[in-house]
Amino acid sequence: MKKLIAISLLAIHVFNLAGYSLVFDHIIRQADRQLVTHLDHNVYDETRLVEVRIALHLPYIQGSFQYERVDGTLEHNGIQYNYVKRKLYNDTLSLLCIPNDQKTAIVRDAKHLTSELNDFPPGKKDKQSGLKKPVLSADYFSSPEEYTIGCPFIEGSSVATTRTQRPLAAFHARPDRPPCIVPVNA
């Protein structure tokens, strides 16, 4: 009896950890498949299409004057979109997208359920701490080193000098000769 209770509690715990995300992923995949089949059979409202233009700077690209069917997804401002058609003309990629209302509702519900299960208040974001690290701090700058040089033979003589570190140059203006190879006599 104890084993049965332990196994059932363990199953409930595992479902709470990963089960919800698996269920929501399955439902989202079904909604995507359903919309893609509608798009493949041209069963959609053309007035709901949204055009997205992306600049492409690719040489020797071969463009097309007409749209071709393409599959893919995109999210913008919490709204899920599916690609319907694309056209590549000159240096611009034009994508015609349609909002996926089912997937948007499922993703919104999944986020809401996740925030409720994890005790996050809905709609409130974490507050930023009042302490901010400065972008430019003294850790990234090297300060010049100061030395005091005195002559032990002359009393009261000291000269303060400042030495700055210069970066090593990778390029030498004057080429040096290669080192000589000295044969070893055995």
Descriptive report:
With 186 residues, the chain is α+β, with helices and mostly antiparallel strands. The protein has a domain at 2-117. Helix content is 30%, strand content 23%. It has two helices and seven strands; from the N terminus they run αβββββαββ. The protein has helices at residues 2-40, 101-117; strands at residues 50-55, 68-69, 73-76, 79-89, 92-99, 145-150, 158-163. Strands 1, 2, 3, 4 and 5 form a five-stranded antiparallel beta sheet that branches. A two-stranded antiparallel sheet has the order 6-7. A hairpin with a 2-residue loop joins strand 4 and strand 5 (92-99). The longest helix has 39 residues, at 2-40. The protein is flat and about 90 Å long. The termini are far apart.
